[in-house]
Amino acid sequence: MKKISILVGSLRQGSFARKIAKNIIPMFPQNYQVSIVEIGHLPLYNFDYDDPAMTDFPLPEAYTEFRETIKTSDGIFFVTPENNRTIPACLKNAVDIGSKPNNDVAWKNKPNGIISHSVGKMGGYSSQKNLRLALSYFDMKTVGQPEIFLGNSPTYFDEDGNLNTEKTREFLQDYVNRFVQLVEENA
């Protein structure tokens, strides 16, 4: 059983990023355990938590749990909107938390996939490029072309939050398939 953690870069329960994530979960093979890892409760990253000399700053339990979840994952999937031409603060915070301590980086060598979206036409291009830049530091293997930028994201869903076009479903399924291949090659 392969374990995949999905990080959603929006805290809103009804967000389009969350709808995308929920729609791709059933696209994975049956021998994959895929779940959304919540990041909204994570305290803002402060290096004092990881500095052994700072005894007044005990490491938050949420950090330890999050890092262990990422470390025990066979792959990481990101679904993110674009906020002000970059990734949302909650997602950047999660990336930072997983990047420490330096001798035990949770992200190291994990295969990853990224779907970005925006309510406008650009599809979260800038957020995806910024996220890819941050993740490249950790030697994370990333699904290549074609990248997924979903512009005008509100138009992709029916009233129940399901994808409303077969073409979009097929496009996302192809990306998930390529991500699964990357995970299998990295096993």
Compute the number of strand runs. 5
Poorly predicted regions: none
Termini gap:
11 Å
**Residues in β-strands, percent:** 5-15%
Question: What is the correct CATH architecture?
Answer: 3-Layer(aba) Sandwich
CATH class: Alpha Beta
Structural Rg: 16 Å
**Structural class computed from helices and strand pairing:** alpha/beta
Order of helices and strands: EHEHEHEHEH
Domain NADPH-dependent FMN reductase-like: 3-153
InterPro entries: Flavoprotein-like_sf, FMN_Rdtase-like_dom, NAD(P)H-dep_reductase
Pfam families: FMN_red
GO cellular component, one term: cytosol
Summarize the structure.
By secondary structure, this protein is of the alpha/beta class.
Structural description of this entry:
Keywords: Flavoprotein, FMN. Its cofactor is FMN. It comes from Otariodibacter oris. This is Chromate reductase. Residues 3-153 form the NADPH-dependent FMN reductase-like domain. The chain is α/β, with parallel strands linked by helices and 187 residues long. It has a single domain (6-185), classed as Rossmann fold. It is built from five helices and five strands, in the order βαβαβαβαβα. A five-stranded parallel sheet has the order 2-1-3-4-5, sandwiched between helices. Strand 4 (112-117), helix 4 (125-136) and strand 5 form a beta-alpha-beta unit.
